[in-house]
Design brief:
The chain is α/β, with parallel strands linked by helices and 708 residues long. The chain has 30 helices and 19 strands. The radius of gyration is 28 Å and the shape is globular. The structure holds 3-hydroxybutanoyl-coenzyme A and 1,4-dihydronicotinamide adenine dinucleotide. 3-hydroxybutanoyl-coenzyme A binds next to helix 2, strand 5 and helix 4. 1,4-dihydronicotinamide adenine dinucleotide binds next to helix 13, helix 16 and strand 15.
Length: 708
């Protein structure tokens, strides 16, 4: 009992309420409050049963993740929840956990120490610790298999996906689903339970008997595929396996060893960094929380191509009616056919019902005119990449759109201010840069033009959330954050080819580093024509005498656009499986020799360092120029838009783990070999390295200065 945990009495039932907003995490004071409340209720002869419940939006959402950082840095010792859980479980009176919202991690572990769990219909329970690079650390891997069975426990602990009330009930985690008022239902359940004997979860052995070892083998295979490079899922499987071989106490000890090993790993630091970075990203220092947010009731999209189609789906998925315009019936039909195909594939996979698909399609109005655009609160533009066309479209919509309508361009590289200059409302012009496939990728770069208003930025951030995206603010630089960093990354990937590495060497080295797809494979997926067009648009900016990649344009000129034409850097079969193309290898070698580039054997370390440090250095430029607000924002962009492995925390966090001095030294080596024009450590990177600082420290100081 303290200000975080209260104890009340309802006619023989003690009700313990946890109130630690926003998510009732087990911060210091909460476990102590629960313990003293349990002890008081246990010792009170008038109490027959106990109900534990969360105040406001949720039950306990887990341990307080901020505390892990303090443990790892030695600021605080790690305090185990196990004694508290044993006290709950040993309570002579039945303890009923009444769960709504999310009982996650330590929250579910507390719940499983109770004798019963009753769930609101919308509640979710889970052990998502692996997403933070750790495993359940308070006997979750030991109690969950005893309640839910070994297979379910392995699935939940190793892959971190939560389950809803119905599944929790069917699997044995929950004892009842409560319709109506949860507290009243929990108290009624507790009264009945007081009349019966109750069992301790740790003594329930029946679901552990006769476990088939194949469960663990399969889970390991699945982890190798879907959690490539990550240690925590394997540790979680090992911990659940221990529950089937060891006594409860020995199992807990094994779990604690594995937990500590994970907690002190770089992977967990990286994943915890990613967790907080994703939540900090929506905070813009000069846009206060009180800034007015415009309600988006209707949307319109110009262009139903690859991106326009996905953007249209985003609006329909969020229940927002959306009009989409094309130039020809053929393009419109193709766009709508793609949208239908995407929805149908979700229905086929069981992710969407047929009725929901029809409901979403009914929200989309395809047409060849601007009819109805005067009703839209936002118009998203996704026509071909080209300044003249974009300006023409913006001038047209400016003549039609209602007052206050936001204009959002999906341009990949072009200047938002120049696009907006043809309108009478530059303050309402913003970049909404989605990533392909736009209906799936979570990232949305929100590009701030010179005149973009704070209301438009606040509305864009809120809209991103509503569309299920993570909005990241970017300044109006060519390529914004993600694509600007991609330019030197892809440049180095191609230089490495010219200097002697094969397409497969480069792709594999970065895949093994953990990136979802090697750089040349990614270019083939995006289409080699995209970069080719962009380079033509910006040809006038190339500096004479500075080395540029030589082969990509040749491939595009040959009609090798990548996957879509079956040939690019690699060859693709009808299932889009890649294989090496000797024609490309010969072209690279020939081109390099003609240009007098020395060919040599190139190792994996060089491939990784040159490409990843090119990303980091460009990221440091963006930070220094204020194009990105925080190093962590850059990490969020790369984790959610470019397949950078979350367990490495993003390029900037990765650089911190290597040490910025080491990064600068390596860049200095590259400068010596490849020249000042290509390699110069960014001033900010150099400054941080010289003062022994880090990007993380830079962010902390900036946050503190802004008072955020
Ligand atoms: N510890 C500390 N802060 C937490 C937290 C936690 N476990 N969970 C959420 N928060 C904070 C967020 O940082 C955010 O703070 P902010 O407003 O200052 O940015 C705030 O709570 C709200 O979080 P969301 O924006 O994520 O709110 P949502 O409503 O979208 O989601 C949630 C709520 C589903 C609970 C989601 O926050 C979540 O998944 N949290 C993490 C849950 C988790 O991983 N639990 C396991 C922790 S590890 C553990 O328990 C170890 C144990 O085995 C010993
Ligand atoms: P796309 O070629 O698939 O589609 C463009 C569509 O715009 C075509 O269907 C075309 O008919 C239509 N269009 C052209 N002029 C029009 C007009 N006046 N009115 C209505 N429709 C018109 O191109 P894509 O890939 O969808 O790109 C669109 C924009 O999104 C570009 O600015 C591109 O840089 C950007 N982008 C592309 C990404 C990608 O991966 N393809 C990723 C992020 C941004």
């Amino acid at each position: 009992m303290n200000e975080l945990v209260s104890l009340e009495f309802h006619d023989g039932v003690a009700v313990i309420t946890i109130s630690n907003p926003p998510v009732n995490a087990l911060s210091p004071g909460v476990p102590e409050g629960i313990l003293s409340s349990i002890q008081s209720a246990a010792g009170d002869p008038a109490v027959k049963a106990i109900v534990v419940i969360g105040a406001r939006r949720t039950f306990i959402a887990g341990a307080d993740i901020r505390e892990f950082g303090k443990v790892v840095s030695g600021e605080k010792p790690r305090r185990s929840l196990l004694p508290l859980l044993r006290e709950i479980e040993d309570c002579p009176k039945p303890v009923v956990m009444a769960i709504h919202g999310t009982a996650f991690g330590g929250g579910l572990e507390v719940a499983m120490a109770g004798h019963y769990r009753v769930l609101a219909g919308s509640a979710q329970v889970g052990q998502p610790e692996v997403k933070l690079g750790i495993i359940p650390g308070a006997a979750g891997t030991q109690r969950l298999p005893r309640l839910a069975g070994v297979a379910k426990a392995v699935e939940m602990c190793a892959f971190g996906q939560p389950v809803g009330a119905v599944e929790a009930n069917a699997s044995g985690i929950a004892d009842a689903i409560i319709e109506g008022d949860l507290l009243a239902g929990g108290i009624a359940f507790a009264r009945e339970a007081a009349a019966r004997p109750h069992t301790k979860t740790r003594e329930r052995e029946e679901k552990l008997l006769g476990t088939d070892p194949v469960i663990f083998e399969r889970a390991r295979e699945q982890a190798a595929k879907t959690r490539r490079g990550q240690a925590a899922p394997l540790a979680a499987i090992e911990a659940v396996e221990a529950a089937t071989r060891l006594s409860f106490d020995e199992g807990c000890a094994r779990e604690a060893e594995l937990f500590d090993r994970c907690l002190y790993s770089t992977q967990s630091k990286a994943l915890i960094h990613a967790f907080f970075a994703e939540r900090a990203v929506s905070k813009i220092p000069d846009v206060s929380q009180e800034t007015a947010v415009q309600e988006i009731r209707r949307a319109a999209v110009v262009g139903a191509g690859t991106m326009g189609g996905g953007i249209t789906m985003n609006y329909a998925n969020a229940g927002i009616p959306v009009t989409v315009k094309e130039t020809t019936q053929e393009a419109l039909d193709r766009g709508m056919a793609n949208i239908r195909k995407n929805y149908a594939s979700s229905v086929k996979k069981g992710k969407l019902s047929q009725a929901e698909m029809e409901r979403r399609l009914a929200l989309i109005a395809p047409q060849l005119t601007y009819d109805g655009f005067d009703q839209a609160d936002i118009i998203a533009e996704a026509v071909f990449e080209g300044m003249t066309l974009k300006k023409q479209v913006f001038a047209e919509i400016d003549g039609i759109a209602k007052r206050g309508c936001i204009f959002a361009s999906n341009t990949s590289y072009l200047d938002i201010d120049e696009i907006g200059s043809v309108t009478r409302r530059p303050e309402l012009v913003v970049g909404h840069h989605y990533f392909s496939p736009a209906n799936i990728m979570r990232l949305l770069e929100i590009v701030r033009g010179r005149a973009t208003s704070r209301e438009v930025l606040a509305t864009s951030m809120a809209l991103a959330k509503r569309l299920g995206k993570i909005g990241v603010l970017a300044g109006n630089a060519r390529g914004f954050i993600g694509n600007r960093m991609l330019t030197p990354y892809l440049r180095e990937a191609q230089f490495l080819l010219e200097e002697g590495a094969s397409v497969e060497d480069v792709n594999n080295a970065l895949y093994d580093f953990g990136i979802a797809m090697g750089p040349l494979a990614m270019s083939d997926l995006a289409g080699l024509d995209v970069g080719w067009r962009a380079r033509r648009e910006f040809k006038h900016l190339e500096k004479p005498g500075v080395r540029v990649p030589l082969v990509a344009d040749r491939l595009a000129e040959m009609g090798r656009f990548g996957q879509k034409t079956g040939r690019g850097w690699s060859k693709y079969d009808e299932n889009r499986h890649a294989s090496p193309d000797p024609e490309v290898a010969a072209l690279i070698e020939q081109t390099a020799r003609k240009a007098g580039i020395e060919r040599r054997a190139i190792g994996r370390d060089e491939i990784v360092d040159r490409t990843i440090f090119a990303l980091v250095n460009e990221g440091a430029h963006l930070l220094g120029e204020g194009i990105a607000l925080r190093a962590a924002d850059i990490d969020v962009v790369y984790l959610n838009g470019y397949g950078f492995p979350a367990w490495r925390g993003g390029p900037m966090f990765y650089a911190d783990t290597i040490g910025l001095k080491t990064v600068v030294n390596r860049i200095e080596e590259f400068r010596k070999h490849h020249g000042d024009e290509l390699w110069q450590a960014a001033p900010l990177l150099r400054r941080l390295a010289e003062s022994g600082s880090s990007f993380g420290e830079f962010d902390r100081q900036k946050q503190a200065a802004a008072g955020v």
